[in-house]
Amino acid sequence: MIFYDYWRSSAAFRVRICLSLKGLSVERRFVSLLRGEQMGAVYRSKNPQALVPALELDDGSVLTQSLAIIEYLESAFPRPALIPADPILAARARAVALSIACDIHPLGNLRVAEYLGRELQLGHDRVAAWRRHWIASGMTALEAMIAPAPFCLGAEPTIADACLAPQIYSAERFGVSLAAFPRIRAVAEVYAAHPAIVAAHPSAQPDAAQTAPAP
């Protein structure tokens, strides 16, 4: 399998966590969002949305959208399970994942920030305030949705944790304090010591040192 990745992409970070938890080795190809490599014809032929990540399977099939890729990995490589067997817990895990991937992350990603600055002429401070508002709002809801013991929904990491860890990284990156979120702080401490999550962290990626700081 070939994984098209970018070190600071929250969506790619989610998939890296799942690959790491499942002990899967993949070929890595790095797509620099800051250099606009995602817009090139070769990559767009694989992912018409021009987003990362993408996962190319051995038969040439290409999967896009981080949660769809994670669901594929869960079906193809079911151990360890990242979606609980209990249907209620499975729904709750997916709800946490979707609230992050659909309701928080898209409002602050690079292409949205660039549009706010370039097209709507919002200055850096106002774009930063936009990001902080939506992250804090989303984190407030997540605080009530999780019950760390020690992970989001119990003793083992799930798809919820694969999404929450990158969102915590984004919160810290954009200056959103976790002081008001004791449950989220608790799982953040667990993530910081978990080998699979540490290995997937942006700072540990080979392309991190080759990339200029993101705006």
TrEMBL record:
User: Do you know which PROSITE patterns this protein is assigned to?
Assistant: GST_CTER, GST_NTER
Which UniProt keywords are given for this protein, alphabetically ordered?
Isomerase
Q: InterPro entries from the xrefs?
A: Glutathione-S-Trfase_C-like, Glutathione-S-Trfase_C_sf, Glutathione_S-Trfase, Glutathione_S-Trfase_N, GST_Zeta, GST_Zeta_C, GST_Zeta_N, Thioredoxin-like_sf
**Under the GO molecular function aspect, what terms does this record hold?**
glutathione transferase activity; maleylacetoacetate isomerase activity
Q: What is its EC number?
A: 5.2.1.2
Answer yes or no on keyword Isomerase: yes
Span of domain GST C-terminal? 86-210
Q: Which domain of life is it from?
A: Bacteria
* Uppermost EC category: isomerase
Gene Ontology CC annotations of this record: cytoplasm
Q: Where is the GST N-terminal domain?
A: 1-81
Any single biological process term in GO: L-phenylalanine catabolic process
Q: Which family does it belong to?
A: Belongs to the GST superfamily. Zeta family.
The record's NCBIfam families line, in alphabetical order, gives: maiA
Name the UniProt record assigns to this protein: Maleylacetoacetate isomerase
Upper lineage is: Bacteria, Pseudomonadati, Pseudomonadota, Alphaproteobacteria, Hyphomicrobiales
